[in-house]
Write a structure and sequence with these properties.
The protein is of the alpha+beta class and 220 residues long. The protein is built from five helices and twelve strands. It folds into two domains: 127 residues, D-amino Acid Aminotransferase, Chain A, domain 1 (2-Layer Sandwich); 76 residues, Dna Ligase, domain 1. The strands form two sheets. A six-stranded antiparallel sheet has the order 1-6-2-3-4-5, with helices on both faces. A hairpin with a 2-residue loop joins strand 8 and strand 9. The longest helix has 22 residues. The relative contact order is 0.19.
């Protein structure tokens, strides 16, 4: 299946933020700079750094700030730094001058202490958009990324919601993800004509709020 592809996570995020119904579901996001990293950590305490282009959870870095100390998690390893300068040098070694985004960290609901998010696959068939899949992805022990290529485990969305929140939430959360997908797709089509397949990555936080973590135009 072919169609328009939009590699830049920044362009897609900016498009989604133009809709007042969708904007509250987009984590606070800025382009990477030292000043933005310092400000985002002061504001949110936890952020995720991700390449503007790329997928599969590759290159993702989680940074948390507690008092004056910083912890950086990359792959399965976490390192603590006493100051911002040391943290920044470590981040830049991984980033290697690639353009990155800083995204507000979301405290995802968990299954047995492991974060879970959701992939909703939405494809255009015969001119009509249709849902093809809605699955939960549970992170491998020790990782914060849930991608299957990084060892994440797939479950049905219903099982994931039931095990991370409660059984009473299943129908409402699935319906809300479908609703957000439909509105977001209409919005993205206006900005990027020719889209034919989309993979939405949703996170549900511990309070039950749904976040659009990312939208892929070449979903795996």
């Amino acid at each position: 299946m072919t169609g328009t592809t939009v590699a830049s996570k920044w362009l897609k995020t900016r498009a989604l933020l133009t809709d007042p119904q969708i904007a509250p579901h987009i984590p606070h996001t800025k382009l990477f700079s030292a000043a933005n990293l310092r400000e985002m950590l002061a504001r949110h305490g936890m952020v995720v750094l991700k390449p503007v282009r790329g997928g599969g959870g590759h290159g993702l870095i989680k940074v948390t700030r507690t008092g004056g100390r910083y912890a950086m998690t990359y792959r399965a390893s976490t390192t603590t730094y006493a100051g911002f300068g040391a943290l920044l040098r470590a981040v830049n070694r991984i980033r290697r001058k690639r353009t990155y985004l800083i995204q507000q960290g979301i405290h995802l609901a968990q299954v047995n202490g492991r974060p879970i998010d959701y992939r909703v696959k939405y494809v255009k068939i015969g001119g009509q958009w249709r849902f093809r899949a809605m699955l939960g992805r549970i992170a491998r022990p020790g990782l914060f990324v849930t991608n299957v290529c990084q060892g994440g485990r797939l479950v049905s969305a219903a099982e994931g919601i039931r095990r991370s929140l409660n059984a009473q939430s299943v129908a409402a959360k699935k319906n809300e993800m479908r609703h957000l997908t439909k509105i977001s797709t209409a919005l993205l089509e206006r900005h990027f004509p020719g889209l034919s397949q989309l993979g939405y990555d949703y996170g549900i936080d511990r309070h039950g709020h749904i976040w659009i973590l990312e939208v892929n135009t070449r979903p795996q």
